[in-house]
Amino acid sequence: MGGSAGLTSALSGLSVTPSSRTMKTLGYGAAMNYFSGSSERQTFVASSRIITDPVDGGKIADLASGHKGMDLLIDGLGGAVGDIAPADTAFPHRKALASIQVYAPATASSQESARKSVSTVVAGLADAGARGGYVNYIDPDLPDWKSAYYGDNAARLDQVAKKYDPNGVFKFAQSA
Q: pTM value?
């Protein structure tokens, strides 16, 4: 069963009840506009964790509770993502169940508070068993960033960087 009926069925099996649920069928461009939330530039603080084994949905909901404006975006993995071996690309989370993006809007005056809230939730997710991270949600505060982003692929990525970028032109604080 696919589409909204399949999604409704799958979501009904969760042990927590969301405060709201929105389902839409959109094309790619429309989906990008919808998830951007605005045509204006926005600032935010974000990080992520990867779920490799089932975790307690109640614990995840409790982690976000009390953090005004924070969203936990859970992206299911599987399917074609798992058709590629974990060592075949830089992305090692091929067998994971999902990624969780922790997202908090921020302004110049609220950025430090948002960063602390995101870090608290990310640490709690790690304690709940969601330990990896998705490199596209780069987080300068993620303490285990190298293993979280790259897993067993980090050493090979270091070798590739030394070979193809010996002068560190593309190097940044959390690059392999």
A: 0.74
